[in-house]
Hints:
The chain is an alpha+beta fold. It has 7 helices and 20 strands. The protein is 19% helix and 35% strand. The longest helix has 13 residues, at 170-182.
Amino acid sequence: MPAAYAAFGLAPAMRAGDVLAGGGHQAHRDFVDFLVDGRPLLFQLADLDAVSPLASDIPPAIFTAQVRSLLLEADAPLPDGRHIIYGCPECADLACGAVTAVIERDGSDYLWRDFAWQTGEHADLERDGYHGMGPFRFAGTEYRAALGSLIDGTEPPAGARRVLLVGARVAVLNKLAAALRAIGIGADITGDATHVPADELRGYRAVAFGRAVTEDQRAAVRAAFDRAGVEAAYVDGLAPVVPLLVAQIEHALDRRPSEQHRLTRLVAAGGEADVEVTSPCRVRVTAYRLDRLHRSHTRDVFDGVLEPGRHRIALDTAAVKGESFVVARTTGSVLVAAMAR
């Protein structure tokens, strides 16, 4: 039976960066995701941390080559006409594993079929195939127009992200800036943005305020960005805990419409985290707290695959004692909530 037609589209996506326990980092990646009938294709893969080959941080020549490969204007990068649809977000090495598929022409249409998890030169469809995924038939005109827009200037990939950090605690800001840069987000520090030239302000996508910044100082910064014509996202830092602040900034940088999010709700109260997801996905929930001496403590409280809907996750009392916060993460989304008392 021939594959039914599906609508093909593209949309900006991101793999949120993270500061991991032990000092490791998870890279922030902006990329272009594939939409099938209006939904990100990545949503069909519940427990996959990956990005498409259309990432914004690869050289323009390689990006163009990736697009032309998907258009079948160049040879497939893998044997048997297979193309990488999603790969490792850290190194893009096939040995780490990738979702691949055969892309072929059928008349004027394009067909994506035989999706599989692949770690070597050839895919074993019987063992590693995604048997419930596809095949997808895309009308040639729609398919070529969407991908062609990426290389003709009408639909550029998401650009680099920069954040302006405003605060009084220089040591915390320096650590935060270093962490953001380590995961691929540009960060600069200032105590006063009112005299920064408008051209420089236009390079920032978000502004993060430390807790010691007064309301008058915040208003002055917002006024400077307004004069520059910049619609920046503003982040009020919850606590001087670097991983928590990174999560807040990642959330602020995510401007995608709600239908392109898997993780849509996080409320922390009564010793529970109320989490809502729109498709099956792996969710990791981490609690952060400050003790009486303002030392930070971190505890992972949940890591597993959730089905669509709302879920209540019990939080260890010790993990949320006193001033505490909860971060929920899934592929491409991160939410932060203060623990209500």
